[in-house]
Protein backbone atom coordinates (compact mmCIF):
# COMPACT_ATOMS: atom_id res chain seq x y z
CA UNK A 1 0.00 0.00 0.00
CA UNK A 2 1.43 3.33 -1.03
CA UNK A 3 1.57 5.69 1.95
CA UNK A 4 1.13 9.42 1.92
CA UNK A 5 3.54 11.91 3.49
CA UNK A 6 1.26 12.59 6.46
CA UNK A 7 2.81 15.98 7.07
CA UNK A 8 0.99 17.24 3.98
CA UNK A 9 -2.27 16.53 5.81
CA UNK A 10 -1.33 19.16 8.40
CA UNK A 11 -1.34 21.95 5.81
CA UNK A 12 -4.15 24.47 5.95
CA UNK A 13 -6.58 24.40 2.98
CA UNK A 14 -4.95 25.29 -0.32
CA UNK A 15 -2.03 27.65 -0.87
CA UNK A 16 -3.20 31.20 -0.03
CA UNK A 17 -2.90 32.68 -3.51
CA UNK A 18 -4.55 29.67 -5.21
CA UNK A 19 -7.42 30.00 -2.76
CA UNK A 20 -7.84 33.68 -3.62
CA UNK A 21 -7.61 32.99 -7.37
CA UNK A 22 -10.40 30.38 -7.03
CA UNK A 23 -12.63 32.84 -5.17
CA UNK A 24 -12.02 35.58 -7.73
CA UNK A 25 -12.69 33.27 -10.66
CA UNK A 26 -15.97 32.04 -9.04
CA UNK A 27 -17.01 35.67 -8.55
CA UNK A 28 -16.13 36.49 -12.16
CA UNK A 29 -18.26 33.61 -13.44
CA UNK A 30 -21.24 34.90 -11.48
CA UNK A 31 -20.60 38.51 -12.57
CA UNK A 32 -19.28 38.26 -16.13
CA UNK A 33 -19.68 41.97 -16.94
CA UNK A 34 -17.81 43.21 -13.87
CA UNK A 35 -14.31 44.64 -14.35
CA UNK A 36 -12.13 43.34 -11.53
CA UNK A 37 -9.02 45.25 -10.43
CA UNK A 38 -6.39 42.97 -8.95
CA UNK A 39 -4.32 44.38 -6.11
CA UNK A 40 -3.97 40.96 -4.49
CA UNK A 41 -1.01 38.76 -5.40
CA UNK A 42 2.21 40.69 -5.98
CA UNK A 43 2.31 39.95 -9.69
CA UNK A 44 3.79 42.68 -11.87
CA UNK A 45 1.78 44.06 -14.77
CA UNK A 46 4.24 46.14 -16.79
CA UNK A 47 6.41 44.91 -19.65
CA UNK A 48 10.04 43.86 -19.20
CA UNK A 49 12.51 46.77 -19.52
CA UNK A 50 13.61 47.35 -23.14
CA UNK A 51 17.22 46.57 -22.23
CA UNK A 52 16.14 43.09 -21.08
CA UNK A 53 13.96 42.51 -24.14
CA UNK A 54 16.83 43.42 -26.51
CA UNK A 55 19.20 41.04 -24.72
CA UNK A 56 16.50 38.34 -24.61
CA UNK A 57 15.89 38.58 -28.40
CA UNK A 58 19.59 38.52 -29.16
CA UNK A 59 20.06 35.41 -27.03
CA UNK A 60 17.12 33.66 -28.69
CA UNK A 61 18.75 34.38 -32.06
CA UNK A 62 21.98 32.82 -30.79
CA UNK A 63 19.99 29.66 -30.07
CA UNK A 64 18.98 29.50 -33.76
CA UNK A 65 22.54 28.98 -35.01
CA UNK A 66 24.56 25.79 -34.37
CA UNK A 67 27.66 27.92 -33.81
CA UNK A 68 26.21 29.99 -30.97
CA UNK A 69 23.62 27.50 -29.69
CA UNK A 70 23.75 26.75 -25.94
CA UNK A 71 22.75 23.41 -24.40
CA UNK A 72 22.86 22.69 -20.67
CA UNK A 73 24.42 25.59 -18.82
CA UNK A 74 26.15 25.43 -15.46
CA UNK A 75 23.57 24.56 -12.78
CA UNK A 76 24.76 27.49 -10.67
CA UNK A 77 24.23 29.97 -13.49
CA UNK A 78 26.40 31.46 -16.21
CA UNK A 79 29.53 33.28 -15.12
CA UNK A 80 28.42 36.48 -16.91
CA UNK A 81 25.32 36.78 -14.71
CA UNK A 82 27.01 35.73 -11.46
CA UNK A 83 29.75 38.32 -12.12
CA UNK A 84 27.20 41.05 -12.81
CA UNK A 85 25.25 40.24 -9.62
CA UNK A 86 28.37 40.07 -7.47
CA UNK A 87 29.69 43.38 -8.75
CA UNK A 88 26.49 45.42 -8.87
CA UNK A 89 24.34 44.05 -6.08
CA UNK A 90 27.12 43.41 -3.60
CA UNK A 91 30.66 44.71 -4.22
CA UNK A 92 29.43 48.14 -5.33
CA UNK A 93 27.40 48.29 -2.10
CA UNK A 94 30.37 47.37 0.06
CA UNK A 95 29.41 43.71 0.55
CA UNK A 96 32.13 41.27 -0.38
CA UNK A 97 30.16 38.52 -2.14
CA UNK A 98 32.04 36.66 -4.87
CA UNK A 99 30.42 35.27 -8.06
CA UNK A 100 30.82 31.67 -6.92
CA UNK A 101 28.75 32.36 -3.81
CA UNK A 102 25.78 33.18 -6.05
CA UNK A 103 23.39 30.47 -7.26
CA UNK A 104 21.12 31.52 -10.12
CA UNK A 105 17.68 29.90 -10.00
CA UNK A 106 14.18 30.12 -11.38
CA UNK A 107 12.67 31.83 -8.35
CA UNK A 108 13.11 33.02 -4.79
CA UNK A 109 9.92 31.15 -3.91
CA UNK A 110 11.48 27.86 -5.04
CA UNK A 111 14.77 28.53 -3.25
CA UNK A 112 13.10 29.72 -0.03
CA UNK A 113 10.90 26.62 -0.16
CA UNK A 114 13.70 24.18 -0.98
CA UNK A 115 16.46 25.41 1.31
CA UNK A 116 14.93 23.81 4.43
CA UNK A 117 15.82 20.32 3.18
CA UNK A 118 19.51 20.82 3.94
CA UNK A 119 18.78 21.27 7.66
CA UNK A 120 18.08 18.65 10.33
CA UNK A 121 14.50 17.57 10.84
CA UNK A 122 14.53 18.72 14.48
CA UNK A 123 15.82 22.22 13.65
CA UNK A 124 14.20 24.84 15.86
CA UNK A 125 12.60 27.36 13.53
CA UNK A 126 11.49 30.95 14.07
CA UNK A 127 9.06 32.48 11.61
CA UNK A 128 7.48 35.90 11.73
CA UNK A 129 3.72 36.23 12.02
CA UNK A 130 2.38 37.44 9.57
CA UNK A 131 4.61 35.63 7.08
CA UNK A 132 4.97 34.78 3.39
CA UNK A 133 3.35 31.30 3.54
CA UNK A 134 6.14 29.47 1.67
CA UNK A 135 8.58 29.52 4.61
CA UNK A 136 6.06 27.89 6.92
CA UNK A 137 4.34 25.49 4.50
CA UNK A 138 7.62 24.05 3.19
CA UNK A 139 8.60 23.19 6.77
CA UNK A 140 5.16 21.69 7.44
CA UNK A 141 5.61 19.45 4.38
CA UNK A 142 9.02 18.35 5.65
CA UNK A 143 7.59 17.43 9.05
CA UNK A 144 9.42 20.05 11.05
CA UNK A 145 6.52 21.97 12.60
CA UNK A 146 4.48 19.60 14.77
CA UNK A 147 0.69 19.64 14.80
CA UNK A 148 -1.59 22.52 13.99
CA UNK A 149 -3.51 23.75 16.97
CA UNK A 150 -5.60 26.86 17.40
CA UNK A 151 -4.20 28.61 14.33
CA UNK A 152 -0.57 27.72 14.91
CA UNK A 153 1.94 24.89 14.60
CA UNK A 154 3.13 23.71 17.99
CA UNK A 155 6.77 23.28 17.03
CA UNK A 156 7.32 26.75 15.54
CA UNK A 157 8.50 29.86 17.35
CA UNK A 158 6.35 32.69 16.06
CA UNK A 159 7.88 36.17 15.99
CA UNK A 160 4.94 38.52 16.21
CA UNK A 161 4.93 41.61 14.00
CA UNK A 162 2.22 43.91 15.20
CA UNK A 163 1.19 47.54 15.02
CA UNK A 164 2.53 47.92 18.59
CA UNK A 165 6.07 46.87 17.65
CA UNK A 166 6.01 48.70 14.30
CA UNK A 167 5.96 45.29 12.55
CA UNK A 168 9.51 44.60 13.73
CA UNK A 169 9.45 41.42 15.83
CA UNK A 170 11.66 41.19 18.89
CA UNK A 171 14.38 38.60 19.24
CA UNK A 172 13.06 35.21 20.39
CA UNK A 173 13.09 34.46 24.12
CA UNK A 174 13.99 30.83 23.49
CA UNK A 175 16.93 29.44 21.53
CA UNK A 176 16.17 29.02 17.81
CA UNK A 177 18.42 27.71 15.06
CA UNK A 178 16.85 28.82 11.79
CA UNK A 179 15.31 32.28 11.46
CA UNK A 180 13.31 33.48 8.46
CA UNK A 181 13.39 37.25 7.94
CA UNK A 182 12.08 39.29 5.01
CA UNK A 183 12.74 43.02 4.49
CA UNK A 184 11.16 45.06 2.97
CA UNK A 185 8.59 42.74 4.43
CA UNK A 186 6.00 40.74 2.64
CA UNK A 187 3.19 41.25 3.65
CA UNK A 188 3.54 44.24 6.01
CA UNK A 189 5.82 46.41 3.84
CA UNK A 190 7.87 47.19 6.97
CA UNK A 191 11.58 47.89 6.62
CA UNK A 192 14.47 47.30 9.01
CA UNK A 193 17.35 49.61 9.90
CA UNK A 194 20.98 48.44 9.94
CA UNK A 195 21.02 48.79 13.72
CA UNK A 196 17.98 46.51 14.15
CA UNK A 197 19.23 43.98 11.62
CA UNK A 198 22.57 43.84 13.43
CA UNK A 199 20.75 42.55 16.54
CA UNK A 200 19.57 39.53 14.52
CA UNK A 201 23.02 38.92 13.07
CA UNK A 202 24.54 39.12 16.56
CA UNK A 203 21.89 36.73 17.90
CA UNK A 204 22.67 34.25 15.12
CA UNK A 205 26.41 34.48 15.75
CA UNK A 206 26.02 34.01 19.51
CA UNK A 207 23.65 31.04 19.08
CA UNK A 208 25.30 29.36 16.07
CA UNK A 209 22.01 29.89 14.27
CA UNK A 210 21.33 30.80 10.66
CA UNK A 211 19.23 33.58 9.13
CA UNK A 212 17.38 33.02 5.87
CA UNK A 213 17.02 36.58 4.60
CA UNK A 214 14.49 37.23 1.85
CA UNK A 215 15.39 40.47 0.09
CA UNK A 216 13.09 40.01 -2.91
CA UNK A 217 11.78 43.58 -2.54
CA UNK A 218 15.10 45.43 -2.06
CA UNK A 219 14.69 47.28 -5.40
CA UNK A 220 11.90 49.33 -3.81
CA UNK A 221 14.14 50.78 -1.11
CA UNK A 222 14.63 54.51 -1.64
CA UNK A 223 15.87 55.42 1.82
CA UNK A 224 19.67 55.21 1.56
CA UNK A 225 20.01 54.49 5.27
CA UNK A 226 18.18 51.15 4.94
CA UNK A 227 20.17 47.99 4.16
CA UNK A 228 19.44 46.42 0.78
CA UNK A 229 21.31 43.28 1.72
CA UNK A 230 21.96 41.56 5.03
CA UNK A 231 25.64 41.42 4.02
CA UNK A 232 25.87 45.15 4.67
CA UNK A 233 25.86 44.09 8.34
CA UNK A 234 29.19 43.10 9.84
CA UNK A 235 29.45 39.36 10.49
CA UNK A 236 26.40 38.45 8.40
CA UNK A 237 28.42 36.40 5.93
CA UNK A 238 28.96 33.79 8.65
CA UNK A 239 25.30 33.40 9.53
CA UNK A 240 23.03 34.41 6.65
CA UNK A 241 21.77 33.12 3.33
CA UNK A 242 20.07 35.72 1.15
CA UNK A 243 17.34 35.31 -1.48
CA UNK A 244 16.87 37.81 -4.29
CA UNK A 245 14.69 37.87 -7.35
CA UNK A 246 14.38 39.62 -10.70
CA UNK A 247 10.59 39.17 -10.43
CA UNK A 248 9.59 42.37 -8.69
CA UNK A 249 12.83 44.21 -9.56
CA UNK A 250 12.54 43.91 -13.33
CA UNK A 251 9.16 42.32 -14.03
CA UNK A 252 10.39 38.70 -14.33
CA UNK A 253 7.43 36.98 -12.56
CA UNK A 254 6.54 35.18 -15.80
CA UNK A 255 10.10 35.04 -17.16
CA UNK A 256 11.59 33.44 -14.01
CA UNK A 257 15.02 34.33 -12.72
CA UNK A 258 16.34 34.78 -9.20
CA UNK A 259 19.38 33.97 -7.10
CA UNK A 260 20.42 32.78 -3.69
CA UNK A 261 23.64 33.80 -1.98
CA UNK A 262 25.32 31.17 0.17
CA UNK A 263 28.60 32.62 1.51
CA UNK A 264 31.45 30.17 2.00
CA UNK A 265 31.72 31.15 5.68
CA UNK A 266 28.19 29.88 6.46
CA UNK A 267 28.23 26.70 8.53
CA UNK A 268 25.82 24.16 9.99
CA UNK A 269 26.79 21.45 12.46
CA UNK A 270 26.47 17.66 12.56
CA UNK A 271 25.45 15.58 15.59
CA UNK A 272 29.02 15.65 16.88
CA UNK A 273 29.25 19.42 16.62
CA UNK A 274 31.51 19.38 13.55
CA UNK A 275 30.99 22.35 11.23
CA UNK A 276 30.03 21.82 7.59
CA UNK A 277 30.06 24.28 4.71
CA UNK A 278 26.54 25.19 3.65
CA UNK A 279 27.92 26.42 0.34
CA UNK A 280 29.07 22.96 -0.75
CA UNK A 281 25.93 21.30 0.58
CA UNK A 282 23.62 23.69 -1.29
CA UNK A 283 25.80 23.31 -4.37
CA UNK A 284 25.39 19.52 -4.13
CA UNK A 285 21.64 19.88 -3.82
CA UNK A 286 21.43 22.42 -6.65
CA UNK A 287 23.45 20.26 -9.07
CA UNK A 288 21.38 17.18 -8.26
CA UNK A 289 17.93 18.70 -8.49
CA UNK A 290 18.22 21.74 -10.76
CA UNK A 291 19.37 22.14 -14.32
CA UNK A 292 19.84 25.86 -14.58
CA UNK A 293 17.84 28.81 -15.90
CA UNK A 294 17.63 29.08 -19.67
CA UNK A 295 20.40 30.99 -21.46
CA UNK A 296 18.13 33.69 -22.99
CA UNK A 297 16.56 34.40 -19.59
CA UNK A 298 19.97 34.77 -17.96
CA UNK A 299 21.06 37.14 -20.72
CA UNK A 300 17.85 39.16 -20.15
CA UNK A 301 18.64 39.25 -16.41
CA UNK A 302 22.22 40.34 -17.08
CA UNK A 303 20.86 43.36 -18.97
CA UNK A 304 19.31 44.61 -15.71
CA UNK A 305 22.87 45.66 -14.77
CA UNK A 306 23.67 47.59 -17.96
CA UNK A 307 23.47 51.39 -17.71
CA UNK A 308 20.25 51.41 -19.66
CA UNK A 309 18.88 48.47 -17.66
CA UNK A 310 19.59 50.21 -14.36
CA UNK A 311 17.78 53.34 -15.54
CA UNK A 312 14.79 51.36 -16.81
CA UNK A 313 14.53 49.23 -13.66
CA UNK A 314 14.54 52.41 -11.59
CA UNK A 315 11.71 53.82 -13.74
CA UNK A 316 9.75 50.59 -13.41
CA UNK A 317 10.02 50.40 -9.63
CA UNK A 318 9.37 54.17 -9.35
CA UNK A 319 6.16 53.61 -11.27
CA UNK A 320 4.93 51.02 -8.77
CA UNK A 321 6.10 53.16 -5.84
CA UNK A 322 3.96 56.01 -7.18
CA UNK A 323 0.98 53.61 -7.07
CA UNK A 324 1.94 52.62 -3.53
CA UNK A 325 2.07 56.27 -2.46
CA UNK A 326 -1.40 56.88 -3.91
CA UNK A 327 -2.86 53.82 -2.15
CA UNK A 328 -1.27 54.85 1.12
CA UNK A 329 -2.56 58.40 0.87
CA UNK A 330 -6.12 57.42 -0.07
CA UNK A 331 -6.33 54.71 2.58
CA UNK A 332 -5.05 57.11 5.23
CA UNK A 333 -7.61 59.73 4.09
CA UNK A 334 -10.30 57.10 4.61
CA UNK A 335 -9.22 56.91 8.24
CA UNK A 336 -7.37 53.57 8.22
CA UNK A 337 -3.97 52.97 9.81
CA UNK A 338 -1.49 51.36 7.51
CA UNK A 339 2.17 50.36 7.14
CA UNK A 340 4.47 49.91 4.15
CA UNK A 341 4.16 51.63 0.80
CA UNK A 342 7.26 53.86 1.19
CA UNK A 343 10.10 51.51 0.42
CA UNK A 344 7.85 48.66 -0.52
CA UNK A 345 5.13 47.80 -3.05
CA UNK A 346 2.81 46.50 -0.31
CA UNK A 347 0.45 48.45 1.93
CA UNK A 348 -0.68 46.67 5.07
CA UNK A 349 -4.00 48.06 6.21
CA UNK A 350 -5.70 47.66 9.56
CA UNK A 351 -9.34 47.13 8.60
CA UNK A 352 -10.43 46.47 12.17
CA UNK A 353 -12.70 43.64 11.00
CA UNK A 354 -12.41 40.02 9.94
CA UNK A 355 -9.92 40.10 7.08
CA UNK A 356 -11.76 37.57 4.87
CA UNK A 357 -15.00 39.58 5.38
CA UNK A 358 -13.11 42.68 4.27
CA UNK A 359 -11.78 40.74 1.25
CA UNK A 360 -15.34 39.62 0.31
CA UNK A 361 -16.74 43.11 0.76
CA UNK A 362 -14.06 44.72 -1.44
CA UNK A 363 -14.55 42.08 -4.11
CA UNK A 364 -18.33 42.25 -4.14
CA UNK A 365 -18.89 45.97 -3.65
CA UNK A 366 -15.78 47.47 -5.26
CA UNK A 367 -14.64 44.72 -7.63
CA UNK A 368 -11.17 45.05 -6.09
CA UNK A 369 -9.03 42.07 -5.09
CA UNK A 370 -6.86 42.39 -1.98
CA UNK A 371 -5.08 39.75 0.09
CA UNK A 372 -6.68 39.02 3.46
CA UNK A 373 -4.15 39.41 6.25
CA UNK A 374 -5.30 36.26 8.05
CA UNK A 375 -3.87 34.24 5.16
CA UNK A 376 -0.39 35.27 6.35
CA UNK A 377 -0.90 34.15 9.96
CA UNK A 378 -2.79 34.84 13.13
CA UNK A 379 -1.31 38.33 13.58
CA UNK A 380 -2.63 39.20 10.11
CA UNK A 381 -6.22 38.89 11.27
CA UNK A 382 -7.93 42.29 11.04
CA UNK A 383 -5.60 43.39 8.22
CA UNK A 384 -5.65 43.31 4.43
CA UNK A 385 -2.74 43.79 2.03
CA UNK A 386 -2.99 45.90 -1.13
CA UNK A 387 -0.30 45.54 -3.75
CA UNK A 388 0.88 48.40 -5.95
CA UNK A 389 1.44 46.14 -8.97
CA UNK A 390 -1.08 47.45 -11.47
CA UNK A 391 -1.42 50.45 -13.78
CA UNK A 392 -1.69 53.89 -12.18
CA UNK A 393 -5.10 54.33 -13.84
CA UNK A 394 -6.38 51.08 -12.33
CA UNK A 395 -5.05 52.02 -8.91
CA UNK A 396 -6.86 55.39 -9.14
CA UNK A 397 -10.05 53.58 -10.18
CA UNK A 398 -9.68 51.02 -7.40
CA UNK A 399 -9.24 53.70 -4.75
CA UNK A 400 -12.33 55.52 -5.98
CA UNK A 401 -14.35 52.31 -5.90
CA UNK A 402 -13.11 51.45 -2.39
CA UNK A 403 -14.11 54.92 -1.21
CA UNK A 404 -17.61 54.44 -2.62
CA UNK A 405 -17.92 50.91 -1.23
CA UNK A 406 -17.05 52.08 2.26
C1 LIG B 1 2.87 37.78 -2.95
O1 LIG B 1 1.88 38.30 -3.46
O2 LIG B 1 3.03 37.66 -1.75
C2 LIG B 1 3.94 37.31 -3.87
O3 LIG B 1 3.66 37.66 -5.18
C3 LIG B 1 4.04 35.87 -3.86
C4 LIG B 1 5.29 35.41 -4.53
O4 LIG B 1 6.17 36.17 -4.92
O5 LIG B 1 5.38 34.19 -4.66
- Cα separation of the termini: 55 Å
Q: What's the structural domain tally?
A: 2
**Major sheet:** 7 strands, mixed
Elements, N to C (H/E): HEHHEHEHEEEEHEHEHEEEHHHEEHEEEH
Structural classification = alpha/beta
CATH superfamily of the largest domain: Type I PLP-dependent aspartate aminotransferase-like (Major domain)
Quaternary structure of the protein: single chain
The strand line-up of the biggest sheet is 2-10-9-8-7-3-6
Mean pLDDT figure: 97
CATH architecture of the largest domain: 3-Layer(aba) Sandwich
Low-confidence stretches: none
Radius of gyration (Å) = 21 Å
Instruction: Specify the overall morphology.
Output: globular
CATH fold title of the largest domain? Aspartate Aminotransferase, domain 2
Question: What ions, cofactors and ligands are bound?
Answer: D-malate
Please give the CATH class of the largest domain.
Answer: Alpha Beta
- Residue share in helices? 25-40%
Number of strands: 17
Give the strand content: 15-25%
User: Helix segment count?
Assistant: 13
Describe the structure.
The chain has 406 residues and is of the alpha/beta class. The strands form 5 sheets. It has a 7-stranded mixed sheet, with helices on both faces. A hairpin with a 2-residue loop joins strand 4 and strand 5. The model has no long low-confidence stretch (mean pLDDT 97). The protein has 2 domains: 6-47 and 308-405, Aspartate Aminotransferase, domain 1, CATH 3.90.1150.10; 54-306, Type I PLP-dependent aspartate aminotransferase-like (Major domain) (Aspartate Aminotransferase, domain 2). The chain contains 13 helices and 17 strands. It has helices at 16-30, 50-62, 79-90, 108-114, 133-142, 194-207, 236-239, 247-250, 278-289, 295-302, 307-333, 355-366, 392-405, and strands spanning 37-38, 102-105, 125-129, 148-149, 152-153, 156-160, 178-182, 210-214, 240-245, 258-261, 267-269, 275-277, 337-340, 346-350, 368-369, 371-372, 383-387. The radius of gyration is 21 Å and the shape is globular. The longest helix is centred in the last third of the chain and has 27 residues, at 307-333. D-malate (MLT) binds next to loops.
Amino acid sequence: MIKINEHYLKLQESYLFSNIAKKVSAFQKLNPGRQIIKLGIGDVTRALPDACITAFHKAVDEMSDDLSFMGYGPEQGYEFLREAVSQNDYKNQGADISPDEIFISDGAKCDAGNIQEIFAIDTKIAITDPVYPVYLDSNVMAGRTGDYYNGRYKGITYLESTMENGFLPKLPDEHVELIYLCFPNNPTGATISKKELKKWVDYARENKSLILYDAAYEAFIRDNELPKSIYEIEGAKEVAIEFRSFSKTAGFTGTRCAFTVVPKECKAYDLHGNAHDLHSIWNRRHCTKFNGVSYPVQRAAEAVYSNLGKKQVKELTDYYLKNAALIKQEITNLGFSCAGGDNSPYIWIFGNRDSWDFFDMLLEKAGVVCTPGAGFGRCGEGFIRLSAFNSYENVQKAMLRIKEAL
